[in-house]
Amino acid sequence: MSTKNQISIEIPQTVIAEVTEKLQECRTLLAPFLQGLTSEEKETIFKMGDKTVATVQKVKDYTEINPEFAPSYMDKAEFLKDVAVVTDLSPLRNLSNQLASDLGDTMMLAGNEALLAALLYYGTVKEASDKGIATAKPIYEDLSKRFTRKGNRPAPENK
After folding, report:
1. DSSP H or E segment with residue 141
2. Which domain holds residue 108?
3. Whole-model pTM over 0.70
């Protein structure tokens, strides 16, 4: 039984180290400006989505053209700062989302292939152990703890 090899790469450790350093540098540079939220805050906060970005931008334009309609209790300077933060961080978020998606997809594909190969090896060790090959038995006993069946399927009976 052969498996289709869809990914065959080796990322040099120097590249991993350099990317890690640069990502940490980005995080450090932005840290003073970023704000964390609790899970509860994330659930209850009024969120700005793709459609409302355009609405907020249009309101910003109108407040500059027709400032007489801005209520006296509206802090226009803070409003403009908030709009600028969203505008400035949006491309960074998009880039980081793309990177996270590409990293996740690459790890999923490589992980899939690694798991399939591990299952092939486990199957061979199990078969060797079942046939009484002494050196396979301790390997099988160790690996069988990790390759247990899950779900509603009954476990096979050991002979």
Report:
1. helix 136-144
2. 48-144
3. yes
